[in-house]
Amino acid sequence: MDNRISFSSDYTKGAHPKILERLSQINFEQQNGYGTDDYCKSAADKIKKACKCPDADVFFLVGGTQTNQTVIDMILEPYEGVVAATTGHVAAHEAGAIEFSGHKVLTLPRFDTTLQDGVAVHSDQIGKIRAEDLRKFIDSFYADESHEHMVFPGAVYISHPTEYGTLYSKTELEEISKVCHYFDMPLFLDGARLGYGLMSTKTDVTLEDIARLVDVFYIGGTKVGALFGEAVVFPKGVPTRHPVPIIKQHGALLAKGWLLGLQFDTLFTDNLYLDISKNAIDMAELLREELVKRGYKLFIDSPTNQQFIIMEDEKLKSLSEHVRYGFWEKIDPDHTVIRLATDWATTENDIRKLMQYM
Amino acid sequence: MDNRISFSSDYTKGAHPKILERLSQINFEQQNGYGTDDYCKSAADKIKKACKCPDADVFFLVGGTQTNQTVIDMILEPYEGVVAATTGHVAAHEAGAIEFSGHKVLTLPRFDTTLQDGVAVHSDQIGKIRAEDLRKFIDSFYADESHEHMVFPGAVYISHPTEYGTLYSKTELEEISKVCHYFDMPLFLDGARLGYGLMSTKTDVTLEDIARLVDVFYIGGTKVGALFGEAVVFPKGVPTRHPVPIIKQHGALLAKGWLLGLQFDTLFTDNLYLDISKNAIDMAELLREELVKRGYKLFIDSPTNQQFIIMEDEKLKSLSEHVRYGFWEKIDPDHTVIRLATDWATTENDIRKLMQYM
Amino acid sequence: MDNRISFSSDYTKGAHPKILERLSQINFEQQNGYGTDDYCKSAADKIKKACKCPDADVFFLVGGTQTNQTVIDMILEPYEGVVAATTGHVAAHEAGAIEFSGHKVLTLPRFDTTLQDGVAVHSDQIGKIRAEDLRKFIDSFYADESHEHMVFPGAVYISHPTEYGTLYSKTELEEISKVCHYFDMPLFLDGARLGYGLMSTKTDVTLEDIARLVDVFYIGGTKVGALFGEAVVFPKGVPTRHPVPIIKQHGALLAKGWLLGLQFDTLFTDNLYLDISKNAIDMAELLREELVKRGYKLFIDSPTNQQFIIMEDEKLKSLSEHVRYGFWEKIDPDHTVIRLATDWATTENDIRKLMQYM
Amino acid sequence: MDNRISFSSDYTKGAHPKILERLSQINFEQQNGYGTDDYCKSAADKIKKACKCPDADVFFLVGGTQTNQTVIDMILEPYEGVVAATTGHVAAHEAGAIEFSGHKVLTLPRFDTTLQDGVAVHSDQIGKIRAEDLRKFIDSFYADESHEHMVFPGAVYISHPTEYGTLYSKTELEEISKVCHYFDMPLFLDGARLGYGLMSTKTDVTLEDIARLVDVFYIGGTKVGALFGEAVVFPKGVPTRHPVPIIKQHGALLAKGWLLGLQFDTLFTDNLYLDISKNAIDMAELLREELVKRGYKLFIDSPTNQQFIIMEDEKLKSLSEHVRYGFWEKIDPDHTVIRLATDWATTENDIRKLMQYM
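ok -> structure tokens follow
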């Protein structure tokens, strides 16, 4: 048993106690299967209300890669690929799940980072794509005389927060949305950590904004208070006549769908989802403050629950005896970028413990 | 809220209370992700011990269709299909999940059922395949001069219990296993309801027999006491160097893998899995006794937790006001076959309630 | 070098001499690639005229399996399969090319053949599907409460002539077409041997009938006078915005597309396609006459260029020293069904030579 | 009819006259289907002899994209992708045919080109990958702790000549081969224009070198004297037990396989393939000389049959009234890179005609 404190990720713990409590309460109720139960209906209604999109279709899936694969397959024609940042989860860390479904991931160039005098220098765009780059990419695709021999850009994938903890501003989202809709391409927002984005003190983007600007997004449960589960929202309705067999075909239709419904019903009651998200942000800000106070250099100025710092390798070695962290990248021969993630259940005491070893 | 008592399936309830209890206990422990935690390790060890196959590889997946798709894709070459009964789950009820992975399901003819004087007449093979039919099928494949233009039979899929509640005898399994291994084809046993097969009073097949005779099988959790989860066992080891990316590629790698590990660890502690399976069998036998006593005709002489009876449509209509059942098939203009399933948590009281309406 | 005369198939020879002649004539003309040349345009125009469907889209592909795979992928939603006869080429002899594209082939039961007193007894439906069976199949699909967990019947595949040389009557085609359109399913007709069907003396189906009744079909060149090539016709237009990348994605876009255009342009000039098809029918009728005269039993009463007879195995052995034939099936321990195929270039002399050994 | 002279590509003409002549000669011989004929055997034997690899397996496919898709699917595990240059044909111009087969194309960064004082400045690596970059890429893949969640680099694709007309030196090939084999990754060489690479006056790479250094390659026919066709060579044998159903499954098994066999048999008799390849090189050198003489700036110093020059847009406009060329890229607001390709049949007279307009 590994008893070191862990800041390695935001999926190291179970679920908010209210979820466990309700699971116990309804354990012997008998539910209908495959998402046709009352909890799924109730959760969907609450989500639609929170998003202010009464015509939305809502589906509950189990995990992130599964959701990305299923959604992207739903919104693309067979000859289309999905545009994403080079650092996007679908491009880099899903073992080819998108290609397994027959679609190419078309990547927009990443923004490189360098270390200058021990300070990371990189674009504030890190992890993100730019509307302007997207437009150029698509323009140049259609300008290419042989584009019928190429993979059509059929949809755009963004993550918010990104894999680097960064966020889109409302203006940025609006601009990307405009480009997508000009070219009749659905915009898909991966919200595996959506709560942490919405509760950032640096954001001007609300859930309603997202529901208004994108064509499909999901509200992450796995990393934000649920045992597991992602709530997929198509604000204007799902673009296929038969979503259920598509979900089933991807192995993504949970028999006891109410386990998902109940969790999201709980998270979307009395603002729980946002309240516990806020905890992660508060703890991340405290964490950052403490780190800066101790002279640590931030790799990125992240406004969400993932904090990235540059560590001397020697120091890191001793840290790892007491603390689990996320290895991010080797940035020079003597330094490593690590990720420290807070979550919905992180306590001030956890931060204090961590600081003993920093 | 549908408050009618339900015998419609064996996945209408949550999990055995011990599982919920342990989930609560470890809720704030911090686990490593993707099945690399201690609970998965412990559960795998207990399963290997129960199967007496120390060299097995064990993986924990979320649901049945997902497991079937992933396993079949692991054991087939690209030009191979999987042989199954026409009634097999992979052939009939997975929305094409196997074909989605690029593989054909090669079906052995089903055994038709007719109604004679109100009594269903069908082969005792219902839901099953026969070693002899399998051998003939493969022989005739290789005898066909154009078989290089056909889909190669690359593996065999059986379910135990079958979708019709029936079971293979040890001799039948041995014969099928022999044919498979003669032709160098892995044998895959879908054990979504394995516990209910093992605890049938009519079986001579043990968990060890299965581990000895098949190349891969799974121990169903979703229908037998877990919230969700299927434990895949490759008794002689998994036949690919990199199972993890294959699982990930199918969207089947759960971030919080320990949720699966913990559940199976609990089920394989103190014989819990088999004990609760026995309850379903006891209740199914009671159910059958009561039904026969009341003059109901059994559609199949099922030795497991699924009981199939022939109902007059008029009677069925009034039953449905009080009871949820599984519609099976329309067998003649006035009669319908329905399924009544017991499970790990069915009580004598439930049976008694049901009998009020029969 | 195998110098035995061959009646084994209709793709043993090159092309009609006019095709070779024109290929030589234009050999050093410089054409645009990928089907954008003038010959493809001209051939398409002639085909549209012959079909009386001026709004058709016409594509030229290389071979039959490739065409079946590409067309079926074009007309199906991802969650749909294609309905076909169990004996259909897509179901039986394409090495899983349809499943490779992610789609299930849903088969309608074949019509078994038995040998009674040395005479084959089977349905005249052999190789075909019946409108009534199709309707029942689809009705029962939608009647099944769990059909969202099954593969949707999304299109219907028929071959004309079938793999057994049989033909649909106009009435049969109309009925199938009606069922398809009632359920909003495209009807796809595989015309790999279309010329031989159209020129049968037993048919009442014309090219215009086909263009009127089906949603997509192809005019086979490989087996009817071309070196290779199949002309795909969508009488009401192709149902995808971008057919070219789909064709390319299947590896089916020939760089020198004009090779296909020129061949079909030649075949559809001065009625050549039908004229040479008629030769195969004339020779098939002569062949049959001679066989019957000699007491051979026909396996099927085939109205097209493929003739199937029942041979004693001993006799067959000596025949095979002089003649290549198509092995069809072993029908009893002492008899074998063989196929003898005539083609666009078979001569009376060929038949005479064959008869020396019969 | 477009009567402008064309230098737009090397697939604008038919085949070497000897091929057409032999096609006519054997037109009414009766051949066995699917590549089991004598011409395929003879062609394979001649190719094996030319490559000095008697144990090779040789297959004949129809076109380039089809061949790339089929070969890559043959040599990869399901969880593997193929490494290629960003400019590689499989990465950029096959409409997602590789992803359609379920595999990701992992790209090594391209080498950008800039225009300085009207002169293109770029790496001599253009179109190629470097052994060192490949090694770094793979090293960093395995160094990444989460690489089991990523697409494994399973094989390497290079083209020779590249899409930019450039060539690998023998040393470069040896180094790439070494890296591939160190990591147990097959090396696949796309030789769609192989003849033009082998006959370049700037190369030190022979056919034998290629057969020795790579695991699979193909000898392009479509662009080098054949009507169509690519000869795939696995010098050490094909790595699957059943290549035929895989080829069939990709729609790539030509019924009249002898059309391919006969063409390659002709090309590999009396050195025809290399002789006609040399013509393209001679003409390309003459073309370049004339262009340089007239002051045109070369975009790349290409040693093969594709020549790339930088044109003023105004000049280009008038050129296009008389000449078909390949648009390559817009390099600045007033200049465009065009491709002028010679081929096996280009004459001095063709060059002279072109020069009238330059």
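Chain A is about 40% helix and 20% strand.
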